[in-house]
Amino acid sequence: MCGIVGAIAKRNVVDILVEGLRRLEYRGYDSCGFALLTETGLKRARTTARVSDLVEQGKQMSGNLGIAHTRWATHGKPDTVNAHPHFSGDLIGLVHNGIIENYEILRDELKAAGYEFVSQTDTEVIAHLIHQTYTQMSQRDLPQAVRAVLPRLHGAYAIAVIAKDAPGILVGARAGSPLVVAFGKDENFLASDALAVAEHAQSMTYLEEGDVAVLTVDGVKVTNAAGVAQERPKKAVPAQIAAVDLGPYQHYMQKEIFEQPRAIGDTVGHIEKIEPQVFGATDADLNKVDSILMLACGTSYYAACTAKYWLEDIAGIATQVEIASEYRYRKTVPNPNALVVVVSQSGETADTLAALRHAQSLGHTETLAVCNVATSAMVRETKYRFLTHAGTEIGVASTKAFTTQLVGLYLMTLMLAKHRGKLSDAAERDNLNRLRHLPAAINAALALEPQIIAWSETFAKCENALFLGRGLHYPIALEGALKLKEISYIHAEAYPAGELKHGPLALVTEQMPVVTVAPNDALLEKLKSNMQEVKARGGKLYVFADSDTAIVASEGIHVIRMPEHYGDLSPILHTIPLQLLAYHTACARGTDVDKPRNLAKSVTVE
Q1: Which of 291, 393, 439, 535 is the one with CA 20 to 30 A from 98?
Q2: What pLDDT is recorded for position 240?
Q3: CB neighbours of 182 closer than 8 A, spacing ≥ 6?
C-alpha cells in the first residue's frame, strides 16, 4: 500500500526520486520522503504533506544514490517521525512496504542490545537489524547483511537499502510485496510499481519471491536469499506513462470514469469467439469443473457478487463468493473440482493472494485470475487468467477497473455456459455484439452528468444515504454506496430492497436520501412496492430508472432515465451514474477525491 523508488546513477537522482513518488502517490499519501548518499553522508527529507512539498527540500540536496517512499500508515500515526526513509544511526537508510509481524519481539531484542527507537513503525526494526549485522562483519558486505537479516522477518516486505560506506550499491529485496528492477543507460532503478520509473528505463525485470537485487551504475545482480545467482527475464517497459497525465480533467477519478468506454472496448476488442483459450485454458481443462469459488476484496468483491448471478443463471453452475480476508481464516469444505477465481485490479492484493494460496493448499488446482496487471503475482500464480485492459488506474476509488472486471467475468460466464451446452452459436454472436456496443451505451450514460451534478448538490448536504437494488443489481447498489462513502465521507449503506421492512426502514426520514437502481427486469414491480414503502415514511427517492419502467418523477421521487435497458449487462451500465454521483458529491463537499483519507490504492498488507 506504500510506494518505493530507488535510483543509482551518474547524475543527481533527486528529480528521479521525487517524480517517481508523484507517480506512486496514489499508493499511499500519509507521508513521504527520500534519502540520498551525499558527499557528507546520508541526508533525508520527509513530510506529512504531499510529494510536491519535497520539491523545495530537494533543491538543496544532491546525490547519485537514493531511496524514496510514500506511506500509508499501518504501525504508528501519520507524522514525520514515522515517515520513511528510516535510518539506523548515520550508517543505514531503508524504505519498506509491507508489515513485519514479529517486529515487537525483534524490537525488544534490539533495545536490549542498545538500539534506540525513534518511531512507532515496524520498519525501523529492519534498519537496526541490518545495521547490527553489517557492523559485526569483519569485512562489511551490505548485500550479505541484508540476506542474513531476511530469514528473521516474518510477514511481507519489499525493501530498498543504502549504506553510508557503500556508495556504489543499492540493495533491494522482496517477499510478499512487489518490487521491480528497471535498467537505464549508466543508471538503474528499483520501484514497487513500474510506473514510477518507466520514463527513465529501457527494460525491466520483476523480482520473484525471496529475491535480493544488488544494483550498481553498471548493472544488476539478482540472487535468492541464500546468495545463489538467479536469472530473471527482462521485459519491455509498459506503455503507461501517458496515463498519469490528467489532461483536461480535474481529477484522476473523473478521467478514469470517462475512460470506461475505451477500457471496455480494449477488453472486448480482441475477442472473436468465446473460447476457453481466451482464458488460457482448453475444453479438457474445464471438463471436471462443477462449481465456482470466487475470492476478492472491496470493489472486486462486488464484481464477484454480480458474477454469481450471471454464473448461476446463464451457465447453470453453482457459485460461492467469499471475502478473501475472511476465507483463509475459517474452516471450509474444499471441492477439488471447483474453479477458484480470484479478482483483483493490481494482482498484488495481499488478502486475495493469501486466500488463493490457502485454496491451493487445500487441493484446489484449477485457478483463474481476473486482473489488470499482466506481471502481477496473482497472474503468475494461477493456472488460467483473463487480463482486463483498463490501463493504469490512479484514483483510489476504483471505476474502470471495476467495469472491466465485470466484462471479464461476464465473458467467463459465457465461456462456461458454452462449454456446458447452454450457449448457442447465435446467442454467442448476440452477446459479443452487445459487449461491443457497450462502450456506446456507456457514452450515453456519461451524458447524464449534468442531471447528476444537480443531484449532487443535495447529497453534499447529507451525512447519510441508503442505496437499494434487487437481484443482479443489489451488488451494484453496494458498489454505489462504497463509492459515496469512500470519497465524500457520507455514511452510505446498501440493501436488497426487499430487506427494507426487516430493519433499514427505521432509518428512513425526510433527511435520508434513498438511491434506487431500477432496471426494467423481472423484479421491477417488487422494487416499485419497496419504493412506496420509502415514500410512505417521508423518504426522498433518487431513482436511476430504465426508460420503459413507467417510474415518473413526483413529490419525493426524483428520476434520471437511463438511455436504454441492457439486459444481463445492465449492471455495468447502471454503475456509471453511481460513480458520477459519488464523484460530484465529493467535489461539492471539497474532499480530496483521488486520495481519500485513510485509504490507499494497492492494498498489499493484511
Answers
A1: 393
A2: 56
A3: 188, 189, 190, 191, 194, 197, 198, 200, 201, 203, 204, 237
pLDDT at residue number 239 = 63
- Bridge partners (DSSP) of residue 9 are 187
* Degrees, nearest 5: CA angle 293-296-297: 150
Helical H runs in 141-269?
142-149, 252-258, 260-269
Among all chains, which residue has been given the C-alpha cell 447452454? 422
Helices (H), ranges, 136-184: 142-149
Query: Choosing from 2, 32, 297, 462, which is the catalytic residue?
Result: 2
CA atoms within 13 A on the CB side of 78: 17
| Furthest-apart CA atoms within the chain: distance in Å | 83
End-to-end alpha carbon distance in the chain: 10
Amino acid at 123: T
Q: Any catalytic annotation for residue 2?
A: yes
Element (H, E) at 284: helix 283-286
pLDDT digits (tens, 9 = 90+) for 530-550: 877 777 677 788 999 988 787
Cα dihedral 269/271/274/280 (nearest 10)? -120
**To which residue does cell 557503500 refer?**
166
Q: Residue 447: exposed, middle, or buried by beta-carbon count in 10 A (0-12, 13-18, 19+)?
A: exposed
* pLDDT (0 to 100) of residue 242: 46
Phi and psi angles of residue 343, each rounded to the nearest 5 degrees, phi first: -125, 125
Judge contact between 231 and 408, C-beta under 8 A. Answer: no
pLDDT of residue 500: 75
pTM, rounded to two decimals: 0.79
Residue of 308, 400, 540, 601 marked catalytic: 601
Low-confidence ranges of the chain (pLDDT < 50): 242, 604-605
Rounded Cα distance between 417 and 424, Å, is 9
Residue at grid coordinates 509491507: 98
Q: Evaluate the omega torsion of the peptide bond into residue 85 and state whether it is cis, within 30 degrees of 0.
A: yes
Written in H, E and C, the secondary structure of 298-323 is HHHHHHHHHHHHHHHHHHCCEEEEEE
Judge whether 357 and 176 are in contact, CB under 8 Å: no
Q: Which of 13, 12, 18, 16 is nearest to 33 (CA)?
A: 18
Which three cell numbers mark 455? Answer: 443531484
Give bridge partners of residue 223 from the DSSP assignment.
Answer: 212, 229
- Whether 305 is a known active-site residue: answer no
Neighbours of 330 (CB within 10 A): 7
Q: What's 520's DSSP letter? A: S
DSSP 3-state of 457: helix
Q: Which residues contact residue 59 at a Cβ distance below 8 angstroms, ignoring those fewer than 6 apart?
A: none
Of 94, 92, 91, nearest in space to 83 by CA: 94
| Measured distance CA(173)–CA(194) in Å, rounded | 16
Query: Of all helices (H) and strands (E), which one includes residue 340?
Result: strand 338-344
Q: Which of 408, 534, 419, 405 is nearest to 468 (CA)?
A: 534
Q: What is the pLDDT of residue 572?
A: 97
Neighbouring C-beta atoms of residue 460, cutoff 10 Å: 17
